[in-house]
Design brief:
This protein is mostly helical and 106 residues long. Helices cover 61% and strands 0% of the residues. The protein is globular and about 40 Å long. The model has no long low-confidence stretch (mean pLDDT 84).
Length: 106
């Protein structure tokens, strides 16, 4: 068993990871806390997580294009939250036939 653990590669942290955690994440959390304040605790948590995921994907896309997303962190956070409010989910497609989905609740 120890031999199997010895061959596992070490975790590789991307270059952009620290910048996302220190610059973008606090901005997204602040905007999400303000915009989702009227939701229940569970919905706030889910919506905030969705906004963070969307912001991270946008951040990575911009980094790959050679842009510096830290310059407009506030706007990136606003767009991530607006994306969630409009129902555009990052993780998966929302199913209208599912009774617990956001789309069915509306």
């Amino acid at each position: 068993m120890n031999e199997a653990l010895a061959v596992l590669p070490e975790r590789v942290v991307p270059d952009w990871h620290e910048q996302f955690l220190t610059v973008i994440l606090p901005a997204v959390e602040a905007v999400a806390r303000h915009r989702f304040r009227g939701l229940s605790d569970t919905e706030q948590e889910e919506s905030s997580a969705e906004a963070i995921a969307g912001a991270m994907l946008t951040f990575v896309r911009l980094v790959r294009r050679g842009k510096d997303p830290a310059v407009f962190a506030g706007r990136l956070a606003q767009l991530a939250v607006l994306r969630v409010l409009s129902g555009r989910l990052t993780g998966c497609a929302d199913r209208c036939n599912d009774a617990l989905s956001r789309l069915a609740r509306h």
